[in-house]
Design goal:
Elements lengths: L6 H45 L5 H10 L3 H4 L21 H9 L15 H12 L6 H4 L5 H10 L3 H4 L21 H9 L15 H12 L16
Length: about 240
């Protein structure tokens, strides 16, 4: 009998094979547990993200009042045409854009940091503002001619501060307005009664129909790509 086929060697080979099988089975179980845990965490995170925008109306109202948002935007969140403060109830933009505007506002509104009002609290405020009556249809849209609006945008010198694509400029401190983050009615209020260094544009300078064309042009512009999708900014 060869040494390789000796009974003791066969027993050892069986033991090695059994040990290898148990080892592989243990590795598979460990990988499955890690995968299940990761899936659970991802699902929990996704649920939290989906639930965040719903917020709580009562909690949102308290935050809205205690942080003095009511001082400028009014108790009914309708804003003021006199001071140029826009209507924000209900919000015409998504929660993500709402948070961005609060953190980096346009005009004379001071920026509100996450230390002052957290993202979770802003979600509560957003939910409260969503509880307000919907805007009348004529307030949220404008029937304009985008092609003519592009000509007017250049003719009236809007591009000199806001850029050819309405992208805004740090040099002029002009905010991005393409596409508009506000409905037409609020956009018109800002043009007629702007805040900051922008001069007012009366109906004698830009008529309501011309303003509708400019708004249509700005609406036709694409949204900017997310910052994390730009390789240079993600380095």
């Amino acid at each position: 009998m060869s040494e390789r086929n000796h009974p003791s060697h066969r027993i050892q080979r069986k033991q090695v094979t059994r040990f290898s099988g148990l080892l592989i089975f243990g590795i598979v179980l460990a990988l499955a547990a890690i995968h299940a845990r990761a899936q659970g965490q991802a699902s929990k995170s996704s649920s939290q993200i989906q639930a965040a925008p719903t917020g709580n109306n009562d909690a949102g109202k308290k935050i809205y009042e205690s942080r003095r948002c009511v001082g400028c935007h009014q108790a009914d969140a309708q804003g003021s045409a006199t001071t140029g403060v826009p209507r924000i109830g209900p919000p015409p933009i998504s929660l993500a854009d709402f948070v961005k505007l609060v953190r980096n506002p346009v005009g004379t509104m001071p920026p509100i940091s996450a230390d002052a009002v957290s993202d979770a609290e802003l979600a509560q405020v957003y939910a409260y503002l969503q509880s307000f009556p919907a805007r009348p249809q004529e307030e949220s849209t404008a029937a304009g001619n985008a092609a003519n609006g592009a000509l007017l945008f250049a003719r009236d010198g809007c591009y000199e501060c806001h850029g050819r694509e309405g992208q805004g400029s740090r040099q002029t401190s002009a905010p991005r307005i393409g596409p508009p983050a506000l409905p037409f009615a609020e956009f018109a209020k800002h043009v007629r009664h702007p805040r900051g260094s922008m001069p007012p544009y009366t109906a004698k300078v830009i008529s309501d129909s011309e303003m509708a064309d400019i708004f249509a042009f700005l609406e036709s512009l694409p949204n900017p790509p997310p910052a994390d999708s730009i390789p240079l900014l993600s380095q």
